[in-house]
Design a protein that fits this description.
Low-confidence stretches: 213-221
Shape: flat
Number of strands: 0
Structural class: mainly alpha
Oligomer: single chain
Radius of gyration: 21 Å
Helix content: 55-70%
Distance between the termini: 47 Å
Largest sheet: none
Length: 221
């Protein structure tokens, strides 16, 4: 559930917060000390599996005119994309594999194959979302300004069509990620001055040259 009344959770003393920090640091240190060759093998095998899935999916689409092969290729490509974005890209850009010092999977050099740039995603996700997780008015991921996902959000007539908005967000998710840093909601509500809005919107709009322009679209005969 999203957090709307932060004061309710602000009862911890300085000592409580310090003790919590010590416990969290201990957990982090334990995880860092356990990293090794087994983890390195895991990410390398995951990358190899993702590439194999993508090649297989494309071959299924290109090598057969059967409808069953088209569906199999489409599903395989979909799984490959999910693995690339969520298990590899998401974690790489969190710095999960920086300790390996491998430029191919380092958070400072990784660029994924989608409309949004990794630079903007690291800001909107790593910094904003994880700093203000589930705090209404601070974390865009709580409904993305369209969905009512918690009782702490005031209900409006607009929310009657939640299912429609959810479907649109699912279909256009890649472009939503690419536009998130522009903060269109603030621009529409005039909560941002013109210079700031211009700066954000021209710095980098979603890239049309991503995967969507290179994926083979082929209807089964």
């Amino acid at each position: 559930m999203a957090i709307s009344d932060v004061d309710v959770f602000a009862h911890l003393t300085d000592a409580d917060i310090e003790n919590l920090a010590v416990e969290l640091d201990a957990i982090r240190q334990d995880v860092e000390d356990s990293r090794g060759e087994r983890d390195a093998r895991y990410i390398r095998r995951t990358i190899a599996a993702q590439r194999a899935l993508e090649v297989t999916g494309r071959l299924l689409l290109a090598a057969s005119s059967r409808r069953s092969a088209w569906w199999a290729g489409t599903v395989t490509l979909g799984v490959a994309k999910i693995v690339e974005n969520m298990e590899i890209g998401h974690n790489v850009m969190h710095g999960q594999w920086d300790w390996m010092n491998d430029p191919e999977i380092h958070s400072s050099t990784w660029e994924w194959d989608m409309s949004g740039s990794s630079k903007h995603w690291r800001y909107t996700h790593n910094f904003v979302h994880h700093k203000y997780t589930n705090i209404l008015g601070m974390d865009d991921d709580v409904g993305y300004g369209l969905l009512r996902v918690t009782r702490d959000q005031r209900w409006k007539r607009f929310n009657i069509f939640n299912l429609v908005y959810n479907t649109l967000l699912a279909l256009l998710f890649e472009w939503g990620v690419g536009l998130q840093h522009v903060e269109l909601g603030k621009i529409a509500k005039r909560r941002m001055d013109n210079d700031e809005a211009r700066s954000g919107s021209t710095s980098s709009w979603p890239r049309p040259g991503g995967r969507c322009s290179r994926t083979t679209w082929r209807s089964p005969r």
